[in-house]
Design goal:
It contains 14 helices and no strands. By secondary structure, it is an all-alpha fold.
Length: about 240
């Protein structure tokens, strides 16, 4: 988990490489009151990395760090409410957490808040406001937000439909490491007849994508009007996924 303001204690300390030792080290710092350590330890608990997975306790640590003004921890409190990690789903509370952290400058919170605004989850649907937040996050280099700005231009949400602009945003998102951006960039390349280049991006997308996305993308490629995608798209994305 990346944060905007790691405490001097954690950033200066040598965090052990061994997962179990790392978890124990961060727990000691977290218990001493270090907000960054609390946020990091909460993430380890959420992931089950070096410690038994415990979403409920991870949620507690995120709250403790958030109470000290740790923006990524506040964003993660929102994620827990959003997805039901260690607490009952509450989209309204999730939106509040995202909004506060977004207003304080955290790009991931901007992205998450924009997503809820676009869907109307926990807040009234407002695609114009969603785009504004995606654009703010994109200016900070958030690749996932850049991809969504591309989607707005491709689908003509709020703005006039513009495939040229969409393609540029997808390319930026792909180069920034977002697997959805990679796949969307590949789609645009395939439509332009640049099948071989597109297949390379599809394979790279598979290396980062979730299993659910790989399955959905493979089905899309099987039915694609682009000959190269129908012939080799599924193999490309599944080959990439095999390297995860």
């Amino acid at each position: 988990m990346t944060t905007t303001s790691p405490t001097a204690v954690v950033s200066a300390a040598r965090i052990p490489d061994d997962p179990g030792e790392r978890a124990a080290f961060l727990r000691r710092l977290a218990e001493s009151g270090e907000a960054e350590a609390q946020a990091l330890y909460g993430q380890l608990l959420l992931d089950g990395n070096g410690v038994a997975r415990d979403e409920a306790t991870g949620f507690v640590w995120f709250n403790r760090a958030a109470a000290q003004g740790h923006l990524m921890a506040l964003n993660m409190v929102g994620r827990c409410y959003d997805l039901g990690w260690g607490v009952a789903v509450d989209k309204v509370r999730a939106a509040d957490c995202y909004r506060i952290a977004a207003e304080r400058g955290l790009d991931w919170a901007m992205y998450n808040y924009a997503t809820l605004l676009a869907l109307g989850h926990g807040v009234a649907e407002d695609k114009a406001a969603a785009l504004a937040w995606f654009e703010k996050a994109a200016k900070l280099g958030n690749a996932k937000a850049i991809n969504f700005v591309g989607s707005f231009h491709e689908d003509g949400w709020v703005v006039a439909r513009n495939l040229t602009k969409a393609a540029r945003f997808y390319e930026r998102a792909a180069e920034g490491g977002d697997f959805r951006g990679m796949f969307n960039h590949a789609r645009m390349l395939g439509a332009k007849g640049r099948g071989e280049e597109a297949l390379r991006w599809i394979e790279r997308a598979g290396e980062r994508a979730t299993p659910a996305f790989v399955a959905k993308a493979a089905a899309f490629l099987d039915a694609s009007p682009v000959p190269a995608f129908r012939a080799r798209g599924r193999a490309a994305i599944e080959r990439g996924a095999g390297r995860c």
